[in-house]
Structure formats: structure tokens, C-alpha cells
Amino acid sequence: MEPRLNHWAMAPELMKAFVALNETIEGSGLEKSLMHLVKLRASQINGCAFCIDMHTREARADGETEQRLYLVSAWHDSFLYSDRERAALAFTEALTKLGDHTPDDALFAATQAQFPEDEIVKLTAIITMINTWNRLSVAFRAVHAAPRSVAA
């Protein structure tokens, strides 16, 4: 697989602005483990190999278990996620899919049961940010890291 173009080289100031926004969002106070799950789930839905690879590596480095990472695509059927994580994953799916899956009042109420309003804004921002990264990476076919055995 070859990248279509290097968006970092073609629009460096724009990419710097995205990075600055991303850093602000990631420093907003939501727990890292939750952000890893949200980023991974949105990236799975969007089919972004680059982001799936990056976010699973980052989550493992921050102590996330292999089993929880493997099961995030089937979180609905797993007992490994807290109510708070489940609410975040449901909200992530709705905001990532939009259209027919737009968050309805019941989903928003379920999200409110786990997150205060300021954290719902932060959660929405992290979901929006990962969807932006996914769309950039998919559009320009960003290539994920090679396994160490291949890269060596």
C-alpha cells in the first residue's frame, strides 16, 4: 500500500493547527484509558488502519490489556468495560456513524448518566478529533507502521 500524498508536507501549518487542537483536547481531563478506547473504536468504524495501529500501540504502552483492545469492536457483548466506558463507546459509535445513527435523546440521557456536561463536551471533542484524523489518514492512505520483523 502506498500513500496517495503526504498531507503533512502539503499543508504543514494546517496540520500543526490540528496537532495543537488535539493536544488541547487530550489534556482536557478525560482519563487516558477512556480516550484510547474511543479513538480505537472510531478508527475501527472508519476503517483507518493507520489510526488503529497507532492507538492500540499507545493504549498498550499506557497499560491497556490485549484482551480489552481485541474486544473493543464487540464491546456490546463483553463484560470487560465499565458503564462509563460503555456509554462513551455508544456515544462514539453514534457520532462516528451519524446519519441514521445520530444520538437520540435516550442515548444522550445514557451518556449524561455517566458524564457531567463538561465531560460530554470533552468526550464529543475527542470523538470529533479522532474522526478528523481518520478522515485525513483514509483520504490520503496513510500507511501504518511495519512490524518490527519487517522493519528491521
Question: Can you describe this structure?
Answer:
The mean pLDDT is 94. The protein has 152 residues and is mostly helical. α6 (83-97) runs antiparallel to α7 (105-112) and α6 (83-97) packs across α8. The chain has helices at 7-10, 12-26, 32-46, 49-61, 66-71, 83-97, 105-112, 117-139, 148-151.
* Net shape: globular
Q: Give the biggest beta sheet.
A: none
β-strand percent reads under 5%
Total helices: the number is 9
Gyration radius from CA atoms, angstroms: 16 Å
Outline the low-pLDDT stretches: none
Which structural class should the secondary elements be placed in? mainly alpha
Distance between the termini: 18 Å
Number of strands: 0
Mean pLDDT: 94
The run of helices and strands is: HHHHHHHHH
Specify the helix fraction band: 55-70%
Short overview:
By secondary structure, this protein is mostly helical.
Tag the structure with descriptive keywords.
mainly alpha; 9 helices; 68% helix
Write the topology of this structure.
Elements: H1 7-10, H2 12-26, H3 32-46, H4 49-61, H5 66-71, H6 83-97, H7 105-112, H8 117-139, H9 148-151
Helix pairs in contact: 2-8, 3-4, 3-6, 3-8, 6-7, 6-8
